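My current task is to audit a protein record that another person submitted. What it holds is a sequence and that sequence's fold in token form. Thanks in advance; the entry in question is below.
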Amino acid sequence: MSTAQSSLMVNRKNILTVNVDYSYNHKWGKIACHIEDYDNIWQTRSLFGKLLKLLFIGHNFEIIVFNYDVKLAFLFSLFHHLYPNKGKLKRCIFVTLLIDVSIFSIKNVHRYIFYYIFLRLQDRIITHTREEKFIYSESFKIRLKNKFIFIPYFSYEDNLILNSQMDRGDYVICPGNHRDIKTFAKAISFLNKYKGIVVGGEGDRLKWEKYKGNKINLFFNISYEKYVQLIANAGLLVVPLKEEKNRRSLGIIATFQAVSYGVPVVVSNTFHLKDYFSNKEILFYDSGNYKSLAKVIQQSFADKHSSKMKVKKAKRKLDKYYTNENFLINLTNVCSV
């Protein structure tokens, strides 16, 4: 029997998933129950309403899988540890921990303490880069070998119909939050031939909405449809990150989207994408160095054949390894051990 087959032999009645964004997957539905199976108004409940509901039914399961909602996972796990009962619950697994440890300082020491306790309340924590296992272990003084588990993230099956009438442009796009926009903007300004597009969030707006560069268009909080259309029609996607400031998984989804649309990708030579692609599939530049980024951008456009071959290799890798099915198999293995 294969690993995949054995991993799927898990009793569905023993696992409850909470706020997971893959609960729609019918294969995962055969592996685990979902909180909304027991509460059809779950999404409208307040945090404490959700906590009370989860405390009422959670102990009927051996494993609870949380996703993203740190506050709910913290409160539930805290109650479970302070007031254990004779229920079946043996393990809490938290998927996709997103803590940028570089933000901690004396001013927000309370946040550090919160996560210091939170990490100790969870039995397993899933990260989407290997480096995060070491970052979190060192930052929060956790020495348990199997506390943090790396599972590669997956590419969403996007059924959105894009405007295929638009020709792919020669603009370079920098989409997503927490990007090194400064290095990107300087690189585009350094080049004469190419224009840039930045797609950011509200945090970026506060800092960049008054930017006057005539070679860069900036968009903030645009619709998802426009966001993916801009990526699909770009000549190149850049994921500019600074390792000392971005100490968590970033850029994975944007890179997956670009690769799925056949758009070449340039990434800073930080840890963020190195678990997923090598220089055989994407291009890397020296983090924080705008001249290095400009050189790689120019290289990608100058040798379009090579760029096209790279992104084809990246697409094959994406379709083979970074699938929803593989992600759920890996997660099931964690649940079954």
Q: What stands out?
A: The first strand starts at residue 15 and ends at 18. The two ends are 17 Å apart (CA to CA). Confidence is low (pLDDT under 50) at residues 1-9.
